[in-house]
Design a protein that fits this description.
This protein is of the alpha/beta class and 337 residues long. It is built from 13 helices and 14 strands. The longest helix has 21 residues.
Amino acid sequence: MVLVTGGTGLVGSHLLLQLAKAGHQVRALYRTKEKIALVEKIFGYYETNAKPLLDRIEWLKSDILDIPNLTVAFTGIDTVYHCAAYISFDPKDRKKLLKTNIEGTANVVNQCIDSKIKKLCYVSSIAAIGGTPDDSYVTESTEWNNTAGYGYALSKHGAELEVWRASQEGVPSVIVNPGVILGPGFWTSGSGLFFKAAFKEPKYALPSGTGFVTVRDVVNAMVLLMEQRIENQRFILVSVNRTYLDVMAAMAKAMHKKPPKKVLSQLALQVGWRLDWLKGTILGKRRKLSKATAALFSTQEYYDSSKILSVLKDFTFEDIDAEIKRTAVIFLAEQRS
């Protein structure tokens, strides 16, 4: 049986769909029943009759920080996809980020070792890979650095170290490092926030850019890596390197909205994170832009995905613009409903 942590997230829900379609018996962890309904909605995007596939999933209420429940979750499991993670760019959440992503992954790794799991796949992020001082491409061997000091990157890097520990203690492991993941259904987090922003016809977009990939590409790569004799390696999953302006414009056009024409200046970002700090400090509002995240928008990183293409001969990346159009159709339909 296959175990999926974080089964109610963007990657996890799409992974469950692919595993169920392939005939696997799957156990998925969840924290609230409301999230299961969201997975059912995701299945409905792709299948007219999703019930037989949903019936292949055994849901178990658990948390990766709850060791007793996690021990139960591993009963009868032979392979593990670890997708669960806490995502926040609010400096106030730094301790929670480190605890959930590092300690939680350590708990998963310990269970994998104790249960003699055949293989582990961990969903990390390009945030856990070092950057470059110039326009050269980031690869899997780029040296780690976190000069911006933001907690999410540090937590994912720390989680990767736990996965490498698993590989040292007899659990074959692979890590995927996706860029910004594009896909439907999750409009209040990740790339869903970009669609919400583009829908409002902003005049400005964020400066610089990063790597982008579709959720189906991430899931497909994960499954292929687990099925083949590939272990103890990491893989960047980036289809294209694009500016935020370019991507936001494509989203706006797909929704028949006016695209942004300009990017925010660095001065605006510097003023912005300070105002955001004041709102968070004085009014207690949740931070949206910290000093560390503002620094990320000063330069564009370019990511090299040639390794995954050379290892998986039958794997190709989907067209990003086609995915933006597909996701935009779903977004607009749900805005009208």
